[in-house]
Amino acid sequence: MKRFLFYSLLSILITGCSASDDGRYNNPNLVDVNFQYRINIESAEFNQLQFPGNQVAIYYEGVGIGGVVVYNVNNDLYLAYELSDPNHIPNPNCPGMTMNGIEATCSCEGNVYNIVTGEQVEGDGEYAMKAYRVETNGRLITISN
């Protein structure tokens, strides 16, 4: 009986502290949208993604909530983040964040985020940028949620 209680308590503690429950992943400001978008990095629009350290912002309807930024880490690893500020509810008066190098800035709140880590570097808020899945297949990159 003692062993059962010990393992039950241990199970509650472990699941109660899991990463999926720590708020950063359950952001009430950004809804989960289902999308899939494929880009060819050899096309003129996305060719700067052929070089490490470059990024491209995509503001097409249906790609993320307020747009998505894709960053080339090292030609093998690409990152993608939502361009809606994670620290306020998106609205039509505050479009997606704008890019300046590896920083995304919200023109409404002044919050600034690093697109390599997704972490906030200036401003007020408790949430990091929302990350999306990235799959590469040769010169094709697929971003999805």
Number of domains: 1
Mean pLDDT: 86
The CATH class assignment is Mainly Beta
Strand content: 25-35%
- Compute the CA-based radius of gyration: 18 Å
Number of strands: 10
Structural class: mainly beta
Low-confidence stretches: 1-24
The largest β sheet comes out as:
6 strands, antiparallel
Number of H/I helices: 1
Spatial order of the strands forming the largest sheet: 1-10-9-4-3-2
Structural shape:
globular
List keywords for this structure.
single chain, 145 residues, mainly beta, Rieske Iron-sulfur Protein, six-stranded antiparallel beta sheet, 1 helix, 10 strands, 30% strand, globular, disordered N terminus, 2 iron, 2 sulfur cluster binding, Rieske domain-containing protein, Rieske_2Fe-2S_sf
Question: Can you give a write-up of this model?
Answer:
InterPro entries: Rieske_2Fe-2S_sf. Keywords: Signal. Residues 1-19 form the signal peptide. This protein has 145 residues and is mostly beta strands. The chain has one domain (26-144): Rieske [2Fe-2S] iron-sulphur domain (Rieske Iron-sulfur Protein, 3-layer Sandwich), CATH 2.102.10.10. The protein has one helix and ten strands; from the N terminus they run H-E-E-E-E-E-E-E-E-E-E. It has one helix spanning 2-16; strands spanning 36-40, 55-58, 68-72, 78-82, 98-100, 103-105, 112-114, 120-122, 131-137, 140-144. The strands form two sheets. A six-stranded antiparallel sheet has the order 1-10-9-4-3-2, with no helix packed on it. A four-stranded antiparallel sheet has the order 5-6-7-8, with no helix packed on it. A hairpin with a 2-residue loop joins strand 5 (98-100) and strand 6 (103-105). The protein is globular. 24% of the residues are buried. Mean pLDDT is 86; it is low at 1-24.
